Amino acid sequence: MSKETTSKRKTKRRVASFFGRLIMYIMILGLIAGIPFAYNFGHSVFYASSVDSPPGNNVQVNITEGMNFDELADILYDKGVIENKFSFKIQAKFFEIRMHAGDYTFNTSQTTRQMLEMIDDGVLENNVNDNKS
User: Fold this and answer.
1) pTM of the model
2) What is the full DSSP assignment across 1-30?
3) pLDDT per residue over 34-83, tens digit each?
4) Pair 87, 93: CB distance under 8 Å
């Protein structure tokens, strides 16, 4: 084997080693940066938080027949009733919430879980909805 071939192999190993370490460092930094994101996401999905402290503000929302949770999350977010649309939709799926049409009065001091229970139970302004679907 010639000296030139050995030198090329060493250079290739050094380059491969450099890029291997670089990729490893990038993965470690991504992991470190991802931990707080994962914690905040889990906290927003499974911790019962509200936008305001009591007494909060009442907000009227009309849920129409055929509306989906994406549309409802957009409305609630735009009206300042929820802080995170994605966690609202995840909770609705996780807790298997069934949406009932009607006029609802939500309060900004309610947790997303309380709002989802109202929607699932069909609790409207007058606190009763007799025609559940």
Assistant:
1) 0.64
2) --HHHHHHHHHHHHHHHHHHHHHHHHHHHH
3) 888 888 777 777 777 788 888 899 999 999 999 999 999 999 999 999 98
4) no
Alpha-carbon distance 82 to 45, whole Å? 12
Closest CA to 48 of 110, 107, 119, 92: 110
Neighbours of 40 (CB within 10 A): 12
Burial of 111 (0-12, 13-18, 19+ CB in 10 A): middle
What pairing do the DSSP bridges indicate for beta strands 102-107 and 58-63?
Answer: antiparallel
Surface-to-core class of residue 89, CB atoms within 10 Å of its CB (0-12 exposed, 13-18 middle, 19+ buried): middle
Residues 70 and 91: their CA atoms lie apart, in Å, by 12
Buried b / exposed e along 42-51 (16+ C-beta atoms within 10 A)? eebbeeeebb
